[in-house]
Design a protein that fits this description.
This protein is 43% helix and 15% strand. The protein is α/β, with parallel strands linked by helices. The chain folds into two domains: 3-122, no CATH class; 140-283, no CATH class. A hairpin with an 8-residue loop joins strand 4 (88-97) and strand 5 (106-117). The chain is globular.
C-alpha cells in the first residue's frame, strides 16, 4: 500500500470512530490502553500520525499492549506472526530531491510499511523482569513535574488559554476529581500555550480559515493525549469539545492529509514541553 493510501485509510478510521463515539463524547484516543506505541526491536517510540493509527487499531481490535514491529523484526525476536493475521499500515517519511527546485532542495514523500501488534505474535520468549529496575519515564509524578516546570503564566478561571494575554486559566486543583485529572486538562491548555508566536508560532488562519480554531483544538486534544499516554495517565474527558466533532470530520474529509499535519504539530508541542522537564532536572 502506498504511503498516501495508508494516510487516507487512517483518516477514514478516525472519522468512523469519532462519529461512532460522538454520542458519548468519547475520543478514539481514550481507549483501554496506556502508553505510546513503541517498536519491539528498536524500542523507538512511534510519532505523529503513526501514533493515531496504532491507537485506532488498538481500540478496534482490543489490543492493550502498545508494542508493534514489522514481520521481519518479530522474526528477529524469535516471534512468529500468526497465520491469517492482518498488519497495520503505517507511514515513514523519506527525503528525496525536489525535481522542481533549482537549488537542490529536498521534499518529503510518504512510504507505507506494515506492523503487527504483539498480541498477533506467538513464540516470544518470556520477558526478563528486573525487580531492581524502577521505571520513572511513565510515572504520573513525572507528568506533574514536567507541567509544573513550564514557565506559563497561570490564573484561576475556566480551563482555557488566552493568546492575547499569553495566560493559561485553570480552576483550583481541588475542584477536579483527582490531581491527575487536573494535570490532564492542564496538558491540553499547555499545548495551546506552545503555539504562541514566541514559541512554536502555530498560525493556522491562512491555511484553515474559519476552521482554524477547530483545528487548533484538535492539535491540543491530540497533544494532550500524547502527553498523558506517555506518562501513564488517563486522557481527561472533555465533553465541552463535542461541539468540534462535526468541524473535525468536515476538515478531515475535505483534506485527509491534514491529520498528519495536525499530528505533527501535536508532536512538536509535546516535544517543546518536554524540554522544560529535562532542563529543570538538570538544575534540580
Amino acid at each position: 500500500m502506498k504511503g498516501s493510501d495508508a494516510m487516507e485509510l487512517v483518516v477514514t478510521k478516525l472519522i468512523d470512530q469519532i462519529e461512532a463515539g460522538a454520542g458519548e463524547w468519547k475520543m478514539p484516543w481514550q481507549g483501554d490502553f496506556t502508553g505510546m506505541p513503541r517498536n519491539a526491536e528498536t524500542k523507538a517510540q512511534y510519532r505523529g500520525g503513526n501514533v493515531i493509527a496504532c491507537w485506532l487499531e488498538a481500540e478496534a481490535k482490543g489490543y492493550h499492549d502498545q508494542t508493534w514491529a514489522t514481520y521481519r523484526q518479530w522474526s528477529h525476536l524469535d516471534g512468529q506472526v500468526r497465520k491469517g493475521e492482518h498488519g497495520l499500515h503505517l507511514v515513514k517519511w523519506t527525503s528525496v530531491p525536489d525535481r522542481a527546485s533549482d537549488t537542490g532542495e529536498q521534499r518529503m514523500i510518504p512510504n507505507g510499511f506494515v506492523v503487527f501488534n504483539i498480541a498477533q505474535v506467538d513464540g516470544l520468549p518470556e520477558p526478563v523482569v528486573d525487580d531492581t529496575l524502577v521505571v520513572t519515564d511513565f510515572a504520573p509524578e513525572a507528568l506533574c513535574h514536567m507541567l509544573d516546570a513550564v514557565p506559563a503564566q497561570c490564573a484561576v478561571g475556566r480551563p482555557s488559554y488566552s493568546p492575547s494575554l499569553d495566560r493559561v486559566m485553570m480552576p483550583p486543583i481541588e475542584s477536579f476529581v483527582s490531581p491527575l485529572a487536573y494535570y490532564a486538562v492542564l496538558a491540553h491548555e499547555y499545548v495551546h500555550w506552545t503555539g504562541h508566536a514566541d514559541r512554536l508560532a502555530r498560525d493556522l488562519a491562512n491555511r484553515f480559515g474559519s476552521d482554524a480554531y477547530a483545528v487548533e483544538e484538535l492539535i491540543a486534544e491530540l497533544g494532550a493525549a500524547f502527553i498523558c499516554h506517555s506518562y501513564g495517565i488517563d486522557v481527561a474527558d472533555r465533553p465541552d469539545h463535542a461541539q468540534y466533532l462535526t468541524s473535525w470530520c468536515s476538515v478531515l474529509r475535505e483534506k485527509p492529509n491534514v491529520l498528519w499535519t495536525v499530528a505533527s504539530k501535536a508532536q512538536a508541542a509535546m516535544d517543546h514541553l518536554e524540554t522544560y522537564v529535562k532542563a529543570s532536572m538538570l538544575v534540580s
